[in-house]
Amino acid sequence: MEKDFDQATSKRMWGGRFSGDTDALVEVFGSSIEVDKRMALEDIEGSLAHASMLMAQNILSEQECDLICKGLQAIRDDIIAERFVWNTALEDVHMNIEHELTRRIGPIGGKLHTARSRNDQVSTDLRLWLRRASERIALELYTFRSELVKIAQSHLNVVMPGYTHLQVAQPVLFSHHIMAYYSMFSRDAERLSQAQKRMNVSPLGSCALAGTGFNIDRGETASKLGFDGVAMNSMDAVSDRDFVLDYLSVFSILMIHLSRLSEEFILWSSQEFGFISLPDSHATGSSIMPQKKNPDMCELIRGKAGRVCGNFMALLMTMKGLPLSYNKDMQEDKEGVFDAVDTVEMSLQIYSSMLSGIKVNADRMRQAAESGFSNATDLADYLSTKGMPFREAHEVVGRLVAICLSEGITLESLSIQQMQEVSPLIEDDIKDYLTLDAVVGARRSAGGTAPKEVKNQIAFAIKELSSEAEILTPAQTQSFVH
Known about the structure:
Shape: elongated
Low-confidence stretches: 1-10, 475-482
Radius of gyration: 31 Å
Mean pLDDT: 92
Strand content: under 5%
Order of helices and strands: HHHHHHHEEHHHHEHHEHHHHHHH
Strand order of the largest sheet: 1-2
Structural class: mainly alpha
Distance between the termini: 36 Å
Number of strands: 4
């Protein structure tokens, strides 16, 4: 029987109404198996839940369900052991698995496809795959943010120049600068959680587009698969890829944040800045210039941000003109998001390990802050406290800076007499206002760079991370080997 069945199914599983063979190039071009086989375990997971529901609804007998489930479990074992042979002619992961199941257990395997379509099946598989992927990324993002907090904690007294337009603006604590990135990546964690929640509804049972006449229980399969509920409209369920766009949007913004941090590390590790030294483990050398230490990982992550954003735009353009419901265009939904997941996951892992080995050159940072007139605003603020309108104070300090530039000195190096020649409001107490530590310490507004405020930020972050740790569990990693 097995040989006859193989011959009968060597044609396309949808080929009943076709008399001619598929063109060989069309077969290759239309196949998605090299991409979507990554969802093989999720496909089997969905099929097991579907079979169990069909039995509970008396659509499958107990014996049929048991035979199907044992066959699927054996196929799953072969896939995990990498013994499973994939066939391009069978187009996708769903048909490969169904064909192999039916080859092993006979025509009963074909009953598994009762009350479902590849349209609802692929959406279910992708949601299950993305749920696990996002759990892993959430864990990596938590680890990375924890490393940022550790760096901030261990460099609380380090002063550096803060920049606008890449020009020295005002002095800030290095820990304040790092905690700015913590805030950015915390928003990424929040967006990731929101995307997970919106995605976690089951399309299974929506079939091709219109639902089914079989007496199925969509709530049961949703519950078995860990979904919060079922998609309410069958047409939307099979044609919706908003959840993929959601994730690609989150990943794109996250990679933009990593790219910005990478740009700073690239600048800071240059000889011109000399603020930090990257660990040798995360840098490379030159094949011709022996003195070089290149920040290649930072540069690569900065570059890969473009690819992740490109994946987002590609799917946006794919979806923008599609009528309801399913269209073959949507086969392009997986490759980009798979690539984005791989890129984001590895980028976060690299950064978490790199952060622990970074060396901070506190003396060089302070020197840079001292030499850039970063305390000029505080001198203007001082004059304002003496009753001078801020705009006039701004003009006075600008004139003092011009004097410093002509003499090659800093503001605090000016004598009181020199200052008073420009403004008699300046008194002897001005020196106490212009030291870097005084300037930093004066920024006491909520969220400012004063040491107390930065400590508050760090304390809030530790509390936030502790709360997340209670609900974060090590993500499931049994998905199909990349």
